[in-house]
């Protein structure tokens, strides 16, 4: 009998779980999960919800609650969206702290924040709520009271609670929109970028009509009540059978609050007949026209919003503008041409024209309104005004607008006509919204139509067709050409003719520097294998040395934060380098454009650059000093990973060397003091340049800004130190809500930057140490006062 009782006790008493645990009961202290590819989780009793890690990319994991029986495992709550956990991280149920997420080194990434509360157990409930409770079953913490972007049936939001949209579809860091039940009882939707009025509200903040609680009931209704339980406002009114559907309501990354349902199934292994389907009208019904004041609008700067057929907002660039971030259309656009000069000695009116867009406006960008005018007058006035980038003509009024263009929208309710100024060279664009260049074969189509209309030219047509066929076969043959490897450098070699064809005659320029011009090219017959071809200037001396350095040095480097050199050409006077193509351009364009990148992305870029430099200084075969670290030499790939480029100015160090002497190299503003003092140069010059780059990333502005209204802010590093010294670091990011909410990391980054820009190179940390400072692996000591802020400007 005793053995039977013991067996029952062993079944009832929860045992510590392994990293592959699936559990449907209460979790005792000490239970843990590890981030790996074993799909470790804690499940609810029915198995419909689970709490655990979800892989978000290579070696990165999100701690989340999700629907477990749905094919796409939809996430409804997450803990560490702004700081993904590396593989091997652990979440553990502890007596002090409750749930604590740590990385493989034991550093805390997230915590539920419980201290001395008598925590006894945790549980994943069938409602989708994860709870931490005391021995007498009192909830001490639960995920329902700490929502992210989703609410579930039975969940309630009380005064002061809010739901925050994620950054993008697959980025769970905090985004641009907030759904909040304000302390005054008003339930509102608003954008967190810039000072903005709510773009939707229940107006329940007056006596006798004051909101108190938002409820999502099991029948699928989301509604607001007052303190007495009286319903004040119904957000969604659809009634959903509780037994046949899963439900969720979410503030999506596009700023719209939507409710979804999904059919349940008796056989969890069967294929789902449908994905989530919307059952309620979106709130608001047309967000494009609802955001009217302040901020950047739905789509970021210099773009406009249209409502698609599925009622989702789409963000597009006006003619002559391109996306800042090709992976996120909501991040805004930038001009893709040189703006009209305001230098009176260089009139440029005849170099610009206006593109028409009906029912389009950027209502927050007016700087001059002229009444009782004609459309022709409005056109001429904008073309003659160098500040005017768009004029909107409506009802006899001409409204001139300047950069940045705010709150753009295109809708039949807008009316009027937008006149967008572009350079005449850019008039080859296709109709608005396409964003592609005009089909190069359109001329051939016209000629072909004429030739086909006359049998006289039939033989000529056949001849032309044959020549075109030969041309494409010649291009296709590039795939079958033998690949030549130089035995000395170990790099692939190209002929000049190959690269001439790959770049279509060096047609599309990507950028230029002191030693040459970079062109976009494509290898092979498919227009997908893009490369960047750097044509070095035909000269002797320094450029020849640069070529030899780049081929020998870059060819031996291999790191995810360095731009990869694919090969080169050294044929007569022609010297060219072939690099991987970086689709998102330079960090300078990304960082100093009209739309500010997110704080999360800026911190990732800082760490990317730091790791790349650490590799160059310590880990590659021959130690390399870059000598010209600046935003223009940091490139971004399709996923916005930062990679260091342009090692042409690098000074190679032998394994037993730590310092060398060389002529002045690099770019003023980023140069360490020793460049100007005829001192030996070490890898610490890159550390100094990185420090300048880091403060630019923190503050999203250039180090030297002579037009700053406050004199103390003209030199950024001076202002940064002043703010640090006065314990007012928050001033540096006060207009950036995401950074302001992460002030500990901001302060750590600032202290790290101040160490980097010390006048004495010996005081500057190594890049290896800096990577540890940025990641929080080591404590950053109080930096001494730098004394050379302005010496290199």
Automatic annotation (TrEMBL):
Ranges of residues in domain Protein kinase: 504-778
CDD domains, per database record: PAN_AP_plant
Domain of life: Eukaryota
Location in or out of the cell: Membrane
Keywords recorded for this protein, A-Z: ATP-binding, Disulfide bond, EGF-like domain, Glycoprotein, Kinase, Lectin, Membrane, Nucleotide-binding, Receptor, Serine/threonine-protein kinase, Signal, Transferase, Transmembrane, Transmembrane helix
Domain Bulb-type lectin: 24-145
Catalytic activity, reaction form: L-threonyl-[protein] + ATP = O-phospho-L-threonyl-[protein] + ADP + H(+); L-seryl-[protein] + ATP = O-phospho-L-seryl-[protein] + ADP + H(+)
Membrane topology designation: Single-pass type I membrane protein
Binding site for ATP: 534
One annotated GO molecular function: carbohydrate binding
TM spans (from-to): 444-469
GO cellular component terms, semicolon-separated: membrane
Signal peptide: 1-21
Main localization of the protein described in the UniProt heading: membrane
Keyword presence, Disulfide bond: yes
Pfam families referenced in this protein's UniProt entry, alphabetically: B_lectin, PK_Tyr_Ser-Thr
Enzyme Commission code: 2.7.11.1
Family statement drawn from the similarity comment of this UniProt entry: Belongs to the protein kinase superfamily. Ser/Thr protein kinase family.
Protein name in UniProt: Receptor-like serine/threonine-protein kinase
Species this chain originates from: Eucalyptus globulus
Lineage: Eukaryota, Viridiplantae, Streptophyta, Embryophyta, Tracheophyta
């Amino acid at each position: 009998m005793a053995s039977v009782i013991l067996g029952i006790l062993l079944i009832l008493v929860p045992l510590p779980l392994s990293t592959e645990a699936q559990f449907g009961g209460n979790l005792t202290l000490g239970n843990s999960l590890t981030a790996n590819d074993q799909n470790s989780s804690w499940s609810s009793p029915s198995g419909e919800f689970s709490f655990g890690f979800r892989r978000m990319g290579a070696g990165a994991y999100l701690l989340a609650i999700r629907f477990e029986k749905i094919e796409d495992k939809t996430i409804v709550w997450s803990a560490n969206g702004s700081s993904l956990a590396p593989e091997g991280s652990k979440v553990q149920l502890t007596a002090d702290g409750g749930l604590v997420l740590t990385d493989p080194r034991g550093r805390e990434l997230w915590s539920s924040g419980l201290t001395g509360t008598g925590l006894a157990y945790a549980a994943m409930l069938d409602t989708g709520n994860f709870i931490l409770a005391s021995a007498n079953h009192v909830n001490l913490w639960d995920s329902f009271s700490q929502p992210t972007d989703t609410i579930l049936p039975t969940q309630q939001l009380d005064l002061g609670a809010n739901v925050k949209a994620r950054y993008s579809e697959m980025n769970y860091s905090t985004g641009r929109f907030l759904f909040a039940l304000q302390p005054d009882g008003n339930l509102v939707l608003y954008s967190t970028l810039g000072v903005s009025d709510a773009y939707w509200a229940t107006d329940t903040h007056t006596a006798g009509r004051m909101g108190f609680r938002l409820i999502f009931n099991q029948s699928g209704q989301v509604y607001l009540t007052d303190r007495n339980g009286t319903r004040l406002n119904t957000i969604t009114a659809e009634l959903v059978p509780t037994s046949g559907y899963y439900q969720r309501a979410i503030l999506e990354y596009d700023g719209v609050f939507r409710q979804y349902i999904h059919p349940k199934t008796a056989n969890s292994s069967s294929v789902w007949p449908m994905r989530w389907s919307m059952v309620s009208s979106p709130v608001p019904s047309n967000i494009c026209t609802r955001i009217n004041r302040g901020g950047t609008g739905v789509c970021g700067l210099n773009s406009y919003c249209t409502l698609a057929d599925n009622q989702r907002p789409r963000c597009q660039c006006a003619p002559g503008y391109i996306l800042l971030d090709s992976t996120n259309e909501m991040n805004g656009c930038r001009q893709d041409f040189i703006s009209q000069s305001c230098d009176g000695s260089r009139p440029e009116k005849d170099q610009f024209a206006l593109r028409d867009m009906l029912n389009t406006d950027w209502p927050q960008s007016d700087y001059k309104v002229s009444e009782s005018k004609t459309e022709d007058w409005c056109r001429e006035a904008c073309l003659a005004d160098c500040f005017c980038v768009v004029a909107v003509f409506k009802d006899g009024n001409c409204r001139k607008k300047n950069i940045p263009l705010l709150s753009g929208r295109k809708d039949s309710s807008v009316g009027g006509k937008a006149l967008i100024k572009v350079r005449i060279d850019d008039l080859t664009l296709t109709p608005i919204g396409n964003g592609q260049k005009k089909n190069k074969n359109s001329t051939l189509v016209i000629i072909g139509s004429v030739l086909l209309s006359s049998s006289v030219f039939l033989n000529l047509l056949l001849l032309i067709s044959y020549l075109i066929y030969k041309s494409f076969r010649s291009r296709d043959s590039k795939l079958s050409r033998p690949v030549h490897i130089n035995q000395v450098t170990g790099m692939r070699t190209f002929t000049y003719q190959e690269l001439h064809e790959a770049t279509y005659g060096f047609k599309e320029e990507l950028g230029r520097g002191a030693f040459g011009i970079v062109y976009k090219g494509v290898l092979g017959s498919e227009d997908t294998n893009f490369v960047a071809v750097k044509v070095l200037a035909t000269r002797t001396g320094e450029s020849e040395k640069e070529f030899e350095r780049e081929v020998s040095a870059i060819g031996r480097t291999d790191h995810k934060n360095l731009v990869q050199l694919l090969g080169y050409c050294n044929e007569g006077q022609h010297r060219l380098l072939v690099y991987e193509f970086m689709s998102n351009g330079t960090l300078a364009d990304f960082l100093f454009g009209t739309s500010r990148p997110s704080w999360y992305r800026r911190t990732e870029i800082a760490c990317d650059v730091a790791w790349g430099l650490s590799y160059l200084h310590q880990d590659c075969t021959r130690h390399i000093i870059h000598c010209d670290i600046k935003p223009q030499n940091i490139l971004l790939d399709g996923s916005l990973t930062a990679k260091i480029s342009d090692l042409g100015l690098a000074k190679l160090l032998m394994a037993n060397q730590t310092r060398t002497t060389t002529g002045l190299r690099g770019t003023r503003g980023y140069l360490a003091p020793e460049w100007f003092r005829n001192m030996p140069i070490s890898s610490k010059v890159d550390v100094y340049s990185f420090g300048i780059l880091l403060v630019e990333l923190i503050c999203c502005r250039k180090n030297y800004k002579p037009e700053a209204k406050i004199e103390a802010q003209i030199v950024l590093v001076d202002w940064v130190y002043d703010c640090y010294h006065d314990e007012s670091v928050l001033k540096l990011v006060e207009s950036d809500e995401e950074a302001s909410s992460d002030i500990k990391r901001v302060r750590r980054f600032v202290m790290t930057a101040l160490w980097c820009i010390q006048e004495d190179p010996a005081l500057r940390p190594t890049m290896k140490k800096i990577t540890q400072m940025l990641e929080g692996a080591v404590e950053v000591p109080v930096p001494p006062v730098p004394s050379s802020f302005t010496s290199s400007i």
